[in-house]
Amino acid sequence: MELKTGLYIDGKWVTGDGTLNVIDPSTGEVIAAVSTAGDAECDAAITAAHNAFPEWAKTAPRYRAEILRKAFELMVAEADHLATLISRENGKVFSDARGEVMYAAEFFRWFSEEAVRTPGDFRKSPSGDKRILVTHQPIGVSLLITPWNFPAGMATRKIGPAIAAGCTMVLKPAGETPLTALAIVDILERAGVPKGVVNVILPSKTGPMISKMLHDPRVRNLSFTGSTEVGRVLLKECADLVIRTSMELGGNAPFVVLDDANIDEAIKGVMLAKMRNGGAACTAANRIFVARAIADEFTEKFTAAMAGMKMANGLTEGAQLGASVSMKERNKIAELVDASVAAGAKVHTGGKTPDGAGAFYPPTVMTVDKSNPILQSEVFGPVAPIIRFDTDEEAIKLANDTPFGLISYVYSQDLTRAIRTAEALEAGMVAINRGMISDPAAPFGGVKQSGLGREGGFDGIHEYLETKFIGVEI
Ligand code: NAP
């Protein structure tokens, strides 16, 4: 299948002010040179979305739903091609990439179903002589910015509800992984999305060009997924024109194993919560809190499972851990581990950067004390620090000792105790006795510095809708 490498503006593939090389992090090879957008192309994308909005907003919800349904079907039919592309530009193993494609496609199916179910309200006022009508209208031109770790899933989680709501949009994918976003927009074009509704640009100078776009009064909404650091900058940018924002930011998830947990089930869960996507997930379990009574057995079994993983190029048969997205990201992981070891961490497996080409870092398990510096950073890689605790209260206090609050995991065979713990954990999502809970049909999002707003579920479409009250005198 032909690789798309242009910018997609107003229904046409165009070139911009230069090119950006996309690198396969497993080999260091250049896969493609993708066009970058200058100021003129960024402006053209906003103009296209602005011009397309009035007609698009008026289309029947059923029409938009059928386009999304068709896009879902095309994505599923082309899953192997997309997964190969993701694995090549991101480094993750093929099985993770294929899982991501199915998850990503599901947002098109879910929002095709949600498009025709936007709720409204008609009521009598308490005084009885007026009527309250509440309706929802698409916000308008939405700027969607996505990270490299789930190049398909993070794009469709925004495009799906924006299309369902009747918004037009400009998508800006991460510089490391633009090919997947371009392949998805090609699918949307074939599914029947009219020109101007979805535009994709890759600015040659991200910060200043996005800032300029956020100061264009035609842009009404920003949906951002990425680091808290960049999210904070964008919130300030959005303040000037009071642009509506959704922020899906960083995490530093605790994985809490209480002393009555089924240890083998907890090992299966932690392998998923830590190692899916090579540990490069905002939902990744980064701080493994284990009750002291079971910590030796847990550590031994977890270390054996991690040490047994096959690390290789993501497209190699049987590979379980691929490369990090770039040498820069891989070196960041190595620096965090080295600093942790210098502060007293005991390494059970891994912990050493391999020689040779490719941005690889091995599965690493360490025991650390609660003051170890690694616990304060979001490790975006296959590194699992274990911390021992004595009481449930201590585990909750340690788990909440972070500015982040995206997701937490709890393992216990006593559901009452697990739910009490879940309620005390400061997180937008809590997984009880499971290592993964992301689900297009459920609200995804964080508290504290992990973000604002929710994607997916019944809430997701409301990030692209304004509530309008119409008051009627009877
Ligand atoms: P990042 O550095 O914040 O980049 C994310 C996106 O923002 C990229 O497209 C990037 O573009 C763009 N960007 C960077 N600086 C910008 C600026 N000044 N103005 C506007 N856009 C800017 O994050 P990342 O390293 O790609 O992704 C990892 C982070 O994403 C982690 O913190 C992870 O937890 C978070 N994440 C959160 C969720 C969630 O749902 N909560 C999901 C996935 C990932 P360039 O590539 O051009 O720099």
Walkthrough of the structure:
The strands form six sheets. Strands 14-15-16-13-12-18-19 form a seven-stranded mixed sheet, with helices on both faces. A six-stranded mixed sheet has the order 9-8-7-10-11-21, sandwiched between helices. It has a three-stranded antiparallel sheet with strand order 5-6-22, with no helix packed on it. The model has no long low-confidence stretch (mean pLDDT 98). The chain has two domains: 266 residues, Aldehyde Dehydrogenase, Chain A, domain 1 (3-Layer(aba) Sandwich), CATH 3.40.605; 187 residues, 3-Layer(aba) Sandwich (Aldehyde Dehydrogenase, Chain A, domain 2). Helices cover 39% and strands 23% of the residues. Helix 2 crosses helix 6. By secondary structure, the protein is α/β, with parallel strands linked by helices. The structure holds NADP nicotinamide-adenine-dinucleotide phosphate. NADP nicotinamide-adenine-dinucleotide phosphate binds next to helix 7 and helix 8.
Count of individual domains:
2
Helical segment count = 13
Assign the CATH topology of the largest domain: Aldehyde Dehydrogenase, Chain A, domain 1
Strand content: 15-25%
SSE layout and pairings?
Layout: E1 7-9, E2 12-14, E3 18-24, E4 29-36, H1 39-58, H2 61-77, H3 79-90, H4 94-114, E5 121-124, E6 130-138, E7 141-145, H5 153-165, E8 169-172, H6 178-191, E9 198-200, H7 206-214, E10 219-225, H8 228-241, E11 244-248, E12 253-257, H9 263-275, E13 285-291, H10 292-307, H11 327-342, E14 346-349, E15 364-367, E16 383-389, H12 392-399, E17 404-405, E18 407-411, H13 415-424, E19 429-432, E20 447-448, E21 451-452, E22 465-473
Parallel strand pairs: 7-8, 7-10, 8-9, 10-11, 12-13, 12-18, 13-16, 15-16, 18-19
Antiparallel strand pairs: 1-2, 3-4, 5-6, 6-22, 11-21, 14-15, 17-20
Helix pairs in contact: 2-4, 2-5, 2-6, 3-4, 3-6, 4-5, 9-10
This protein binds NADP nicotinamide-adenine-dinucleotide phosphate (NAP).
NADP nicotinamide-adenine-dinucleotide phosphate is lined by residues 145-150, 154, 172, 174-175, 206-207, 210, 225-227, 230, 233-234, 248-251, 282, 378, 406, 446, 450-451.
